[in-house]
């Protein structure tokens, strides 16, 4: 399947901020709104911004209705998911992408937004795995924010290069990028949002999970055959991992390695992708090249 890429943004265009998962306030987004305005964009706040239903940014119908409105509005040229949390998977089956396909636009976010990234890829459209507005101004996140701006405006991006890591597996791979949050990739297996992995370079990240959960999810990807056809694997941040009183005995990276070593694709660890300030934007669906050797690992995205 050929992947379609939305057009780059231009100054003066309108972008929407929505929250398809956890609730957030307009006040929390004020710094991000100022930044987007400084980029020359007109910011539209969706109904889900300041919506509230327990932990969600409004009930499922409100969040779905808000996202649908932005998909359908031809004057909205990008949809930026304000934050993650939990909830995108509860609304995705109710979304109608027919008007979106007539005039595609960028959808950007990460973590829980992995559901939408993969759903769009399955439909044949690229999207952005990158920093969300609630995190635009976290300390140390300047490169992450700049990388998002460059992708949105169609500017050239630099290859990602990381130092050698103990568990790296050397080799070169080419293929489209797919991936995101491991917990969400596990959750959408067998659903209408599951994206193909075969022939792709998979990237993984996660936050606040027990180590045995990481093993259980990697085991599932292995047993379900999703790792067998990978071209390559990129491992990002596995942040704030937890353990039981009786230790699991392996780090998250060692758990991933225990499954990756059963195959022959190259693997690069330590990439700046995930729940840390250095969360460089990746275009899901873009052709990429992964090179891993004694000098480290490099990911070049077309």
From TrEMBL:
Keywords: Carboxypeptidase, Hydrolase, Protease, Serine protease
Start and end residues of each LD-carboxypeptidase N-terminal domain: 15-130
Annotated active site: 111 (nucleophile), 205 (charge relay system), 275 (charge relay system)
GO biological process: proteolysis
Cited InterPro entries: Carboxypeptidase_A_C_sf, Class_I_gatase-like, LdcA_N, Peptidase_S66_N, Peptidase_S66C, S66_fam
Keyword Protease: yes
Domain of life: Bacteria
A molecular-function term among this protein's GO annotations: carboxypeptidase activity
One Pfam family cited in the UniProt record for this chain: Peptidase_S66
Domain LD-carboxypeptidase C-terminal per the UniProt entry, residue ranges: 174-290
Family the entry assigns: Belongs to the peptidase S66 family.
Protein's name in the database: LD-carboxypeptidase
Organism of provenance: Hymenobacter montanus
Upper lineage: Bacteria, Pseudomonadati, Bacteroidota, Cytophagia, Cytophagales
């Amino acid at each position: 399947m050929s992947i379609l890429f939305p057009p780059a943004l231009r100054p003066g265009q309108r972008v929407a901020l929505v929250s398809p998962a956890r609730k957030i306030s307009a006040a929390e987004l004020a710094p991000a709104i100022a930044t987007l305005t400084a980029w020359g964009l007109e910011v539209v706040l969706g109904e889900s911004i300041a919506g509230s239903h327990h932990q969600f940014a409004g009930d499922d119908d409100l969040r779905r209705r808000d996202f649908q409105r932005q998909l359908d509005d031809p004057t909205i040229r990008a949809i930026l998911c304000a934050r993650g949390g939990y909830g995108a998977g509860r609304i995705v089956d109710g979304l109608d992408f027919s008007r979106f396909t007539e005039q595609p636009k960028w959808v950007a976010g990460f973590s829980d937004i992995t559901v939408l990234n993969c759903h769009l890829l399955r439909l044949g459209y690229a999207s952005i795995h990158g920093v969300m507005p609630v995190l635009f101004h976290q300390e140390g996140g300047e490169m992450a924010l700049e990388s998002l701006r460059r992708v949105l405006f169609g500017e050239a991006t630099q290859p990602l290069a990381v130092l050698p890591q103990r568990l790296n597996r050397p080799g070169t791979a080419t293929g489209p990028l797919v991936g995101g949050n491991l917990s969400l990739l596990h959750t959408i297996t067998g659903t209408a949002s599951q994206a193909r992995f075969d022939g792709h370079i998979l990237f993984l990240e996660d936050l606040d999970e027990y180590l045995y959960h990481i093993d259980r999810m990697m085991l599932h990807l292995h047993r379900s055959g999703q790792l067998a056809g990978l071209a390559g694997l990129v491992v990002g941040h596995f942040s704030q991992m937890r353990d039981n009183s009786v230790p699991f005995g392996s780090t998250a990276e060692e758990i991933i390695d225990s499954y990756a070593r059963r195959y022959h694709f190259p693997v690069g660890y330590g990439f700046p992708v995930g729940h840390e300030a250095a969360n460089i934007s990746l275009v899901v669906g873009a052709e990429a090249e992964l090179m891993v050797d004694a000098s480290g690992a490099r990911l070049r995205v077309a």
